[in-house]
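seq as requested:
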Amino acid sequence: QSTWGELVLGIAIMLSLRSSVSRRLIHSSTRALSPCYTTFDPNTLSGKNPITLQNLVGGKWTPTTSYTNIPDPMKDGEIIVHAPETSEAELTPFIESINSCPKTGLHNPFKNVDRYVMLGEVSHKAANMLGRDADFFARAIMRVMPKSYAQALGEVKVTQQFLKNFAGDNVRFLARDFGVTGDHDGQHSTGYRWPFGPVAIIAPFNFPLEIPVLQMMGALYMGNKPVVKGTSSVSLVIEMFVRLLHACGLPTTDLDLIHCSGPRAQQLLERSNIRLTQFTGSSQVAEKLAVVTGGKVRVEDAGFDWKILGPDGANDERTLQYVAWQSDQDAYACSGQKCSAQSILFAHTNWVKAGLLDRIKKLAEQRNVNDLTVGAVLSETTQRMLSHQARLLQIPGARVLFGGKELSNHTIFKGYGALEPTAVFVPLKAMLANEADFKAATTEIFGPFQVVVEYDDSTLPLVLQACERMSHHLTAAVVSNDVLFQRKVLAHTVNGTTYAGLRARTTGAPQNHWFGPAGDPRGAGIGSPEAIKLVWSCHREIIQDVGPIPSTWKQPQQS
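struct tokens:
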């Protein structure tokens, strides 16, 4: 019995140790340890231990003769990245690589169809690897584009889920054709989704993983060969992901990655056979690219995104709490640096009387630089944001609701912005009174800044008038469960990604639905099969007419 008891005890100890080791392994695998395909550790990245990036062209990682020093956004004066500053002469291999891809692409429904399967397998492996290395990528994002860990990890998870969505056969399903019978036997027409061939992707800084990856993979799925340019200040993230793709079996010659300035990218577009450029970023650059490319551009540009709080819901405590939280998230998460961020809040007087604005203020004041729930603003200076606030205060009746000052006790790089989450109240009729004030009130500030407007039932037409006069139509939210109110607002607005209902938000760019603007024929979508097919392929119709020629056929008179 003693021997048997010792044996049982020994087995129990062994199982306990095995479980403990397993837990340690699982725990260690979720930490930001540098994966084998990467060249740095986000935890040790510093002025004393910077990373030097490389271009990818023609299947080879290559250095450049000069580099741009990228500062740590949260530590003024500390250089953490040396990004290639590609010279004019160094464009030559990129031009040669781009021009080596024919108009028919790397694959199409008649050529190299095995690549649809290969890319489905690459997506499957990449989704698994990105899930394993999620913490690494989240912390890499945080080092160059300051946002909270939850926001950074959310970006990684959306990207991972997108890759899952297009694993297996789903890549070839994107190229599904359709057919129609002809006028006689042997005639049949088939519509195909056809690639453009050599294409370019110019990605923004605010989502350094999600946006370039979703567009880049969509381009590849449809048979194109993309050259990808991220924003140099954050492009270490996309470089690490391209290295991950290579580890997952993507041929190294399938895409090129260039780190360069905007003018250098323009030279590349002008000197190569790029047939489509997809751009995400400011409306000013989008308009310039439309000219440079001769209109061969798909854009997801600026969005002065509105939220309208309907007359219902304000008398319910739980709903009031939820809408306040969602409004704070929409306006100030990622320090307001989302193209879908809530730029203007039209609050029905019922919500104002219920104390919604005070609740939003309380939530906004809890944000701090320590957990990066507010942080560096990469495309606006502090002075620029404060100057815009001063301009708004010139509108009769305008006032600061909260914020309106530079962040205190911060070490943010002086070339970036540092502003408290800010809201400025502007009276509805005053905003609409003249074009200059309306333009000021509807100018997008890509930071933690929003305009708040109060309205009532009688002035809803003025709110809809304001929405009509806005120039860009990306996202919107109609916060109401009143179906008639919803339908009235939806019928008179055009924003491409619009949420409706008491849980409506403006910031929604997941992988499970279309995200993109409306009202612009150049508009680009992202994330969904429809978006990929619209942006990264064109329609080709092939009509088979093989006969037979009827034995009774006689040559008709010429017409």
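The longest helix spans residues 2-29.
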